[in-house]
Every structure is written in C-alpha cells, then in structure tokens.
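**User:** My hope is that you can spare some time for a protein that puzzles me. As I understand it, each token names a local backbone shape. I would be glad if you read both lines and explained how they fit together. The protein I mean follows directly.
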Amino acid sequence: MSEHFFAPCPRGLESALVAELEVLGASSLQATDGGAGFSGPFELCYRANLESRIASRILWRVGSGRYRREEDIYKAAYALPWQDWFDHSRTIMVKVSAKRCPLQSLDFITLKIKDAVCDKFRDQTGERPSVDTHDPDLRIHAFLEEENFALYLDTSGPALFKRGLRRSSVEAPLRENLAAGILHLAGWKPGEVLLDPMCGSGTFLMEAAQMALDIAPGLGREFAFTKLRQFDARAWENLCRQAKARQKPVQFCHIYGSDLFGDVLKVARENLETAGLLEAVQLKQCNVLEAPAPEPQGVLVTNPPYGVRIGEQEELAAMYPELGHALKQKFTGWRAYFFTADFRLAKLIRLSASRRIPLFNGPLECRLFEYKMVAGGMRREKPG
C-alpha cells in the first residue's frame, strides 16, 4: 500500500533532495518551495530517516481536504483514527504553518487540532494523550494553504540535521543538512579532494567524511516512527544492519580542514573525535590567505564568517580581495565554493563567479558562489 510523505528541507535544496529521495526508492516525487512530496510503502519512511542527508524531517500525510472555517479542520482531524496509530500514553504537540491562509489565528487552529485529537481518543478509549511542547513523543503538523489543508504525523522526532555527532559548537554553526546539500550542489564526490579553509566547528568536514565512508546519517539516533503502532521492528533492524555492513573502515579520505583560530580548530577536532571521524580528516591551524593547496586539484567549500559589528564588516571587506588573489595564485585547477549571506563577497573577491545559487540558512537569504580556478581565465571582464 502506497503512502504519501513530505520532506521539508532548507530552501534552495529542493532539487538535491528530490535526487536523493529518488535513489532511496521514492516515487511520485514533486518538489515544492521548501521541500518535496513523495510516495511509497510505509517502510520507506524508515529508509528516508536513516539515509537522507538533506531532509529536515519525514512527514507522513494522514489527512487532507478543503476548509473555510476552523471548524472544518476540527471535524477533519476528529474523523481520523488517531488511536489506530499511537497509544494515548504518548505525548503530542501540534505545529501549524500556513501560506495565504485566510483564517486569523494559527494559534487557535493549533488548539482546535489538539482538541480534535484528544476528543477522539477520549470518545474512543476513555483516555486522552497529554501535550508536551518541549520533547513530545509524536508531533502532528498541519499545513494550510488558501483553501486546502494537510495533516501529517512526523516520523522523525527531533529534526534530521541533529545527527547527534557534535560535542560542542562555535557561534552560528551551519546545519548539517544544509552543509550536505551544499556539498551536493558543489558536485563533490567521495574520493575527490575537499578543503574547508575556514572550517569552524567542522560541519562540512563531518558531512563529507560520512559520505566518503558511506555512513548513514541516521545511525545511532532514535526516531518517532518507533513509537507508532504499525512500527515493524524487524524491518528497521534489517535496514540498520545493511547500513552498518556497507560502512567503510575509517581512514584518511583526502578531506582537509583549517582555521585561523586554535580554539575553533579544537572544537572541530573534538566534534570529529566524538563522531569517530578524526582519522578521516587532516586538520591544520593556518590563515586562509597563506594556506597552500593541499593537493593539485580538488574542491574548496567554505562558509566565511559573517561580519556582525562594523569593525568586523570592514575587516571582511578588506580580506575578500586578498582571498581572491590567494585563490588565483595557489588554487589553479580547483573549484571553489563560498556560502555566505554577505553579498559583497561577489564584488570584492574580484573573480568571475560561474554560478550564484540562492539558498537560505533558516530565514537568512544567502548565496553559494562558484569559482572555477582556471589558469589565466579568472580576470573579470570589463563591462562594455
């Protein structure tokens, strides 16, 4: 029996998510703004949770319809057999998001859906689930458009970018699924040399090492689907066993990371060590402007620091031309990718970007700039 799912992801990564889900066996794939819908047997949500590097969650669609008033949504939610899917002892929370919704209060709709679920349990079983808005067993998601709505059970639990690998973090770390998606957009493949010269807490390095060693990102964490009545423990154990069997032994994967600051590099080292990936990566403390290319060809991917205060902004603006010069001098034969919310980089780095890909880091609009470091071909053309 085919079920319908929706996987949200960071905006700008929808096509990468569709390609990933197709490999995992999803059908009827349809990219939308901020995610992708797909279909397959219920067990597909096990595989997607275990294997997806780009999805934020895997949501199982349990109901949909048209509405005009809050009461229409209450009736539709009440009609669903919640008690067939989970026990009243499970805690729940309801989250509502909307696009062009004509109703006034999303908080009131949230309350109506919660009431519908609890009323249905009480009428059918004499018991009702408790609400836990901090760490629920199960999350119920509602998406409202102008005339239509959909109700989902979240099969993931905590967001999928929470791999459980970090020991510590620097300020404003990059989410793991966004880093994985950027590596996909950069066209980096396991076996290819990778360098992050401003590696921070090491997110790009950890995601690349997991890809290179074929480590499923969901191994070692728990998922909400295990709390559903229809959970098939044997099927899940088989998937995990297969994933573990194909993992490669940890060895150096030609992945390099560096940072100017020793305390920041210490954080990256601790995170890689906690994840069991330290031997896969080579770390070095150095200035990005002085660092040589570690190998003749490869892919440079980095998330430069954001300038928050005026002094920092001026410092970054002065660094960008020097960064462009360093790339031209030392990284011929490489592809370089800069993910940033600082749109001045494209102008000040004084290189011609071959691609400018719009992405979002949460609500923050960013760009992924691509530079192909070809000898003698990086001068910016004068406007005619």
Remarks:
- The chain has two domains: 3-154, 176-216+246-372.
- Residues 69 and 118 are 20 Å apart (CA to CA).
- The domain at 3-154 is CATH 3.30.2130.30 (VC0802-like).
- The chain has a mean pLDDT of 93.
